[in-house]
Design goal:
alpha/beta; two-stranded antiparallel ribbon; 7 helices; transferase
């Protein structure tokens, strides 16, 4: 697991695989060396993915009248009949709405909004994408809309919690049966001292 510093196979001990942003999962010495270029490639891939999502979200792909064209692979499976029935009901509802004057040309029928989220794990990556909003005077981590802390990153006195305490993004806290409820309360108090609605989402792990 990534929580161990080393991985051992057949008497060979190498640094653990830390994720593609850090090193490679192939079990050899070269692959396991941390490479900062990986973080730059990850950023470029994330930016390209977001641009693709934006194009889909505003370019008509998200239009409700295309509901029967979504998830085509899924519709071939056992649940496909139920999905097609639901899609047909959406088509009927769209027909009713068009008759009532809300046509498919209306922007609300052709576009959608989306949000991104990931664990605040690699602090150098997160810090490099943090910006001051000149209008509000608040700092935002622009790597995602919502960030979360998990089992590895939610220590009350840890660097990840300290970093997230300083950004205004919505935040998530992943919890499992390993977490002391009192610790969760303390963590929420640290991350949301003003008790702002919507600031914290608790995610069951």
């Amino acid at each position: 697991p990534r929580s161990d510093n080393f991985e051992e196979k057949n008497g060979v001990k190498l640094p653990s695989y830390r994720g593609d942003n850090i090193n490679g999962d192939t079990f050899d010495e070269k692959s396991r060396i941390p490479d900062p270029q990986r973080m730059i490639r990850a950023y470029c891939q994330a930016a390209a993915t977001l641009n693709l999502l934006r194009a889909f979200a505003t370019g008509g792909y998200a239009a409700m009248q295309r509901v029967t064209q979504w998830n085509l692979d899924f519709t071939q499976q056992s649940e496909g009949d139920r999905y097609r029935e639901l899609a047909n009901r959406v088509d009927e509802a769209l027909g009713f709405m068009a008759a009532a004057g809300l046509t498919v040309d209306h922007p609300i029928m052709k576009t959608t909004e989306f949000w991104t989220s990931h664990e605040c794990l690699l602090l150098p990556y997160e810090q490099s994408l943090t910006r001051l909003d000149s209008a509000s005077g608040l700092y935002y981590d622009c790597s995602a809309h919502m960030l979360w802390v998990g089992e590895r990153t939610r220590q009350l006195d840890g660097a990840h919690v300290e970093f997230l305490r300083g950004v205004a993004n919505p935040l998530g806290i992943k919890v499992s049966d390993k977490m002391d409820p009192n610790e969760l309360v303390k963590l929420i108090e640290i991350l949301n001292p003003q008790n702002k609605p919507g600031r914290i989402t608790v995610i069951t792990r």
